[in-house]
Amino acid sequence: MAPAMSGAPHNRANGTGARFPAARISLFYICIFLVMGVHLPYWPVWFAARGLSADDIGLILALSLGLRVVAGPVIAVSADRLGRRRGPLVALASGCLAGFALYGLTDSFWSILFVTLIANALLSAMMPLIDTLALQRAPLDGFDYGRVRLWGSISFIAASMGGGWFLAQVTGTGAEQIWGMVLVAAALTVGAACLLPGERRSPGIDGQTDVSRRFPSSRHVWLAALGLCRHRQFLLFVLAAAAIQGGHAVYYAFGTLHWRQAGLDDSLIGILWAIGVVAEILLFLVAAPFVARLGPAWCIAIGGVAGILRWSVTAFTPALPVLMLMQCLHAFTFGATHLGAMHFLSRAAPPGLAATAQSIYAALSAGLVIGAVTYLSGVAYQAWGGFAYLGMALLCAAGALAAIRLARVWDGDVLAAQPQSAEAAGNS
Hints:
This protein is mainly alpha-helical. α8 packs across α17 (419-427). It has a single domain (20-201, 215-422), classed as Growth Hormone, Chain: A, CATH 1.20.1250. Helices cover 78% and strands 0% of the residues.
């Protein structure tokens, strides 16, 4: 089967009873990205079919992204304290399915906002946990993170292309069909979460086995997390990666609507989304030696430079061949930035804070920064249409500069851990 191609040896992971861990993690990526492959490009169409304006859509998406600032770290702190990933992921996937089902009961802006806050918070909280699990198991089970993660990208491309083709066959806006596809994908994600391997216990490798000694309570984890947030190099990293990923805000929120208004049909729009993800997949296949040679910070910087070019050109709604070429730069604006961020976190996160560090990054980047940028993009798109992409180019320029600075000041080691200060606080 396809996920087994990730190269992991089949084994009985220590104490987990799970064989084929890479295949099981790949399956979860496949299922959760089925949800995202329909939800991300087409859910604004569902909003529009319910009579929401561009300002309304931007506000709802921004508030739901902003909720990640609170929800993600709270869940991750609990996961780090427990030393578990599978149980929280099963609970989150089940809650996400219930949240999407509640859309059937919405009939106003406020009810849509309420359900969106719940569903999106639970959906987004799963990504730091599954990434942490994959990064923790990869060196222990002998597989490459990028080659497991790429199955999520393949799933996304199948969902976005298949969704575009399917919507082109139906009459009307296709809003109900979009909702149905998301529900099916969310149900599959629950099943995949139940099959995930547990944490592999390896003292001295990931530091997870002595979490209780390092952090006797959740308060100690929070103190250590706050110390990490004050670290200059961690802040530089978040600024760089968040700015570049935030540069996708107009694309994610209004890309489909903008291309529809430009006269492109849904099948072609699905292909455009797919081109970007194909480029991302190809990068994931070959990136390991380049990441090792360049280092995480320079990978992020490359993503920023690519973003300057991509969004500057896309702003002028170029001819289709040029637009397709710009979509290929998604390999760098998202792919290189994501790989750089994941490898930075895997190297720099203090022992026992893996999920918390991931969630802080996700909260600040995918929550606070992208939430604010998404809201502003709604206002900008309402006023200027596609020229809102120019603001995204400026954001990527700021991210590239921050990444270059990070490359100069970070030595590649673990950032100063905070358990000592947490213990001191606990004993005071």
